[in-house]
Specification:
24 helices; Beta Polymerase, domain 3; about 575 residues; Beta Polymerase, domain 2
Length: about 575
């Protein structure tokens, strides 16, 4: 988490310095440092403890001091001073995805636009057209970026929320009087972003738990401190709420606070029809108009809550009122995929392109994960910014994989590529090259603003290629950076099914693409899904868990996912005839 926060601050420093026409070498140094920090496989605080910050490429004494300052105080004074010297409107503009420092400067200095609202109004009214440096395409990007920024503000990515909640829960588990504790809310449902964090605990001494909660290291401010409910605000302005109940009510409180609201409403409706009352303390038989009179018949665990309503237990990820209540009533809920079902990672990058690990290192990590096979999918030649491999380099890597496979036991490395889908749908390598590989991922990394019909046809042409096994991150979104590009998902799904091409759930936390909605639609359309981590560093191998969370929210079972197959069945499945 710290790596990403510091990298973003360095990017913002570079943006402001560029607006101020500062030394270009200084600007470049901050951008390079941000890139290096974000790609680290180890937390910067650990490197600080080892006194190895200056071992990071591009990090000298000045930048290492700034990193240490942030670790210590959660702010960098140089950045705070720059922000005070920079108009608020400019700071807002550089947060808009796709708006760089030069455009921000034009908007503020030349057009005298002072805030996002004013910018949105004038752009929609066509009042920033025909301005040097602002093309029609740039204006459209600005409007889309503002909408995206407004939607995402106040929400934090799932992986960051998990990190915060896990640290707090770990601290509270050590408190003597605590019996059970777990995250609830949208975090427990594995929503891709969450607004705040809910935690539920059971104890006979809630006062003691609350006293410890408001003192956790993550707490920057105490919002509320009560006997059974307290709230803190962490660094980064994330609110965390803790509810403590008696152990007999723990299951009811966990279910109630996990939600979603629509799911809970449906449960209450069923309860009423059965003459029951359901709330955060349990399920009760109702007598007359009393709110919760009579005998409590359920509440200690979630399973008995659902059983009291004659429903199968609904996994948290499915509680969105998308048909799970009906399926639970008919006892037809799917048996959701588990991370232990995964036998391979289908999307990985080595040092040959833009990863930092050797093939041998990737193989060793994968063996420890218990994988049966993996696919190396370095970028193709056109993607120079990511160190794309020439045809010669690709064949050299294939020979290297053969040599490693001869020596290695317990894991098979498959030869693959993440081949670029060019602007017209052609692929970056010829069919003669692609047919030599075991597994081919095709991906779009440019031309995101093409019209919907062009982008759709472009991806469909790639899927219809007999050598293409899977489409990577099919909608191209990067949360906090850009929204999904416009494609006709109905046509994409039909083509994928007919062409027998797998679609990926990309587990990279800022992608999670396909999302849960499209994943469920893919399942219903009969499309096979593959899950890949898109790993470039050691720590990213653990991102498989985020792909699994999307799969579970999309109702996927083991049989729906390509890399749950053993090697023999996998190789048979991906053959296009």
């Amino acid at each position: 988490m710290l790596n990403k926060e510091i990298a973003l601050i360095f990017i913002r420093i570079a943006d402001i310095l560029e607006i101020k026409d500062d030394n270009p070498f200084r600007i470049r140094a901050y951008r390079k440092a941000a890139q290096q920090i974000e790609s680290l496989s180890e937390d910067v605080s650990a490197l600080r403890d080892k006194k190895k910050l200056e071992d990071i490429p591009g990090i000298g004494k000045d930048l290492s001091k700034k990193i240490e300052e942030y670790i210590r105080t959660r702010k960098i004074n140089f950045y705070e001073k720059l922000k005070k010297q920079t108009p608020k409107g400019v700071l807002e503009f550089i947060e808009i995805p796709g708006v760089g420092p030069k455009t921000a400067k034009v908007l503020y200095k030349d057009l005298k636009i002072r805030n996002l609202e004013d910018l949105q109004i004038r752009a929609k009214a066509g009042k920033i057209k025909n301005i040097p440096g602002l093309k029609e395409k740039t204006i459209n990007n600005i409007l889309q970026g503002i909408d995206f920024l407004k939607q995402s503000r106040g929400r934090i990515p799932l992986h960051i929320a998990i990190g915060i909640s896990s640290e707090i829960i770990s601290k509270l588990k050590k408190v003597k009087n605590i019996k059970r504790i777990e995250a609830a809310g949208s975090l427990r449902r594995s929503r891709e972003t969450v607004r705040d964090i809910d935690i539920v605990a059971s104890s006979k001494n809630p006062k003691k738990i609350m006293a410890e909660f408001v003192k956790v290291p993550k707490a920057e401010d105490v919002v509320a401190h009560g006997l059974t409910k307290s709230s803190i605000r962490t660094h980064g302005n994330v609110q965390v709420d803790l509810r403590v109940v008696g152990d007999d009510s723990y299951g009811a409180a966990l279910a109630y606070l996990t939600g979603s609201k629509a799911h809970n409403v449906r449960l209450r409706e069923i309860a009423v029809r059965k003459g029951l009352k359901i709330n955060e303390y349990g399920v009760y038989k109702v007598k007359g108009k009393a709110r919760a009179s009579g005998m409590r018949i359920a509440g200690k665990n979630e399973k008995e809550i659902y059983e009291s309503l004659n429903l199968s237990y609904v996994p948290p990820e499915m509680r969105e009122d998308r048909g799970e209540i009906e399926a639970a009533g008919k006892k037809t809920l799917p048996k959701l995929i588990e991370i232990t079902d995964i036998k391979a990672d289908l999307h990985m990058h080595s040092e040959a392109s833009d990863g930092i690990l050797s093939l041998e290192e990737i193989a060793e990590i994968s063996k420890k994960k218990g994988y049966e096979y993996i696919v190396i999918t370095d970028h193709s030649k056109t993607l120079g910014v990511a160190g794309g491999l020439s045809k010669k380099d690709l064949f050299r890597q294939m020979k290297q994989i053969d040599m490693i496979n001869k020596k290695m036991k317990g894991l098979r490395i498959l030869k693959g590529t993440e081949v670029e889908i060019l602007g017209d749908g052609r692929l970056d390598y010829s069919d003669a090259v692609l047919k030599e590989l075991d597994f081919v991922i095709a991906a779009v990394h440019s031309g995101f603003k093409q019209p919907e019909n062009v982008l759709t046809e472009r991806i469909m042409r790639a899927m219809e290629n007999k050598n293409v096994s899977m489409i990577a991150h099919p909608t191209g979104r990067l949360m906090g950076v850009r929204d999904a590009y416009e494609i006709n998902m109905e046509k994409i799904l039909k083509c994928a099914r007919d062409a027998k091409t797998t679609l990926e759930i990309n587990s990279y936390p800022d992608r999670l693409d396909l999302n849960d909605i499209n994943t469920k639609a893919a399942k219903e359309a009969g499309v096979t899904i593959g899950i890949g981590t898109d790993s470039h560093t050691r720590e990213q191998f653990d991102n498989m868990a985020f792909g699994i969370s999307v799969a579970r929210r999309g109702w996927l079972e083991k049989k729906d996912v390509l890399n749950t197959l053993n090697l023999e069945d996998f190789l048979r499945k991906i053959k296009k005839t």
